[in-house]
Amino acid sequence: MRVIFALLLMLSGYAYAGCGNISDDNQRAYCNAKINGQSCSNIRDDNLRATCNAEMNGQSCGNISDDNQRAYCNAKINGQSCGNIRDDNLRATCNAEMNGQSCGNISDDNQRAYCNATINGQSCGNIRDSDLRNQCEALKR
After folding, report:
1. What is the pTM of this model?
2. Which of 66, 87, 68, 88 is closest to 76 using CA atoms?
3. Tell me: the pLDDT tens digits for 61-71?
4. From CA 39, how far away is CA 111, in angstroms rounded?
5. Which among 6, 21, 56, 8 has a CA at the least distance from the CA of 130?
């Protein structure tokens, strides 16, 4: 009976690493909004909620108070330049996503592995941060 239950869970997607396996409440809610179409209003962090609303609901990136995150949002949503992002890793991530540049320019190991997994089709298993790895696996499902 346990084998059948485990098989049913795997087939239904619940046993597979998804948004539910992300321990951070805000990141889990963001993942659920992006992957499962849930509401961005479940995100308590103001900047992440504003990012979600810009990506999912067409709202303005101007509601994001963090300068780097707002510039990243504007690059992704409105086609603005990644050059407006002062944070080196976020700018490198933006350039990899938007301009086809290498993920190798990202100095943070986990972010570089996430970039390589989501952009270049590499394994999410190279990401040591469990929340980021679970988010990666949810996106690649």
Report:
1. 0.82
2. 68
3. 999 999 999 99
4. 26
5. 21
